[in-house]
Amino acid sequence: MNNYKAFVTIRLRDGILDVQGKTVENALHSMAFNSINNIKIGKYVELNVEAESFESAEEIVNQACMQLIANPIIEDYFIDLVESEE
Question: Cys-Cys with 84: which of 3, 9, 47, 70 at CB 3.0–4.6 Å?
């Protein structure tokens, strides 16, 4: 088995209101940071996975994201996978 480290970035899909991002944007505007707009607040997840191959590890992480880590109805996720020595 090989060890891999996955870095998953999750953000709301375009067209979904990002309430947290809008709140931060409004607060920044009230502090005179008027040139900052369209703030998106997301999630970042790191995990280790054991798998036979890079492709297998990628599929395991993808399935975990689709079933639990992300909400594929309203969120997009991006996986960056690297071989690990752990």
Answer: 3
Q: For the chain, where are the alpha helices, taking DSSP H only?
A: 19-30, 54-64
Parent domain of 13: 2-83
Whether the Cβ atoms of residue 4 and residue 57 lie closer than 8 Å to each other: yes
Mean pLDDT of the region 10-32: 96
- The confidence band for 65, taking pLDDT boundaries of 50, 70 and 90, is very high
Give the CATH number, domain containing residue 51: 3.30.1280.10
| Of 13, 14, 39, 17, nearest in space to 26 by CA | 39
Q: How far is CA 19 from CA 3, 38, 69, 71, in A?
A: 37, 11, 20, 16
Which residue, among 72, 85, 80, 74, has the nearest Cα to 46 in the 3D structure?
Answer: 80
Identify each DSSP E strand in the chain by its residue range: 2-12, 43-51, 75-83
Chain centroid to Cα 63, Å, comes to 14
